[in-house]
Fold this sequence. Notes:
The chain has eight helices and seven strands. It is an alpha/beta fold.
Amino acid sequence: MRLKDKVALVVGAGSSRPGMGNGKATAILFAREGARVVASDKNLAAAEETVRLIRGENGEAIAVQADVTKEADAKRMVEAAIAKYGRLDVVFNNVGIGEGHAGLNVTEEEWDRVMGTNLKSIIFTCKYAMPELIKAGGGTVVNNASMAAYYSYPIYAYAVSKAGVIALTRCLAGGYARYNIRVNCVSPGLMDTSMAAGIQTDSRRRTVEERVPLKRQGTAEETAQTVLFMASSESSYITGQTIIVDGGQIVR
Length: 252
């Protein structure tokens, strides 16, 4: 088991809609690989559903409600993990939203909400998680970005925020390497996840056919496998990097 005896915090471990999202799939996979999982979500019921699935496979997990765009909630979330398991070894920052008007039609409220969610959630989680990883003698952090960071994506706030996630990952990696903490990033492309369920249109399918060399969307489980690799000792000499999970879209 690649995470045996580790304590893993998955932030955004629930699914916003029925089905499998990146956080949910990762939490389940972490548990299968031996981790004790702290499944955190703004929606407690969604986190509890993930925990039920983990326990149904005889894994160990707890659910914690937290809106990690709020510093107090991020602090309380990490404290809950420590109170239950006494340490922290792995963090997966998976909270993110993509919404608002395209281009320069974005409103101030939309811009602030996307930036506040996609970047503040990582900053505040790491603010309180990093000291615990240091106490544990080191650990791993994986942040979830997006392929939107690499293209002229129409929803500017989303693309810019995800580019910020990649930059923040590099800053954290450089700042915490001396503590034996590795920080990396995953950038999913066109994924068939619960979050994307409402945009499975003919236009999206044509985009997949035209721009994705593997001719299909990815799955939450494929994102989870990549996150597991970066969280485990198999990637022990990798930090500050972004692994793209896009079926080859970036080469088009």
